[in-house]
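Lab notes, practical 5.
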Amino acid sequence: DSDPLKRKVRLNPLLNFDAGLKVTSSVLMAILASPDTMAQLSTHGAGDSLTVAPPPTTDGPFIMITAVSASAADAKLMVERTITKSAEELQSRQANLGAPPSTFIHLEVVVPATPAASQIKSKVRGAAAVLGVGVALTLTLVYGLESFLTRRRQDDLPVAEPQAGTEPEDEPATVPEPEPERAG
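Output from the prediction step:
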């Protein structure tokens, strides 16, 4: 049919609603954050962690990947695996939805991976925080123990009994003020 009204235009379902790219990136983040997918992406090294989340200061269809590992090579490998998995998932979902290939959304790396940085500063900060809390706790315990022992010593002191014929003083003795000297 040459009638344009009878021709059916096929669109990509992932782009067929407002904020389609944001929703698509949210779906991708949910898929990537699943425990099974995280297990596939991790290098399983000691201390490995992988975070897939929207950037904290940017609004839009962006995904931020953060990998932490004892090895810079393992961190880089986790990021590369995550980017590859994201592209595969995006292609697969669109194909399963029957989207025409000409309308496919493609993953684009906007900011290349930053070089791996040693986490020694955070370890030093952590050690300093533990030391600070330890010192504060020690001082508090010493002060508390000293206060307890001082109070206990005061309670153990014998109370002097008043002698017969003397009355306890209710008020402290007052010393008379000296009279001002007169020049004469």
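Observations recorded by the TA: The helical segments are 20-32, 35-41, 72-96, 120-156. The two ends are 136 Å apart (CA to CA).
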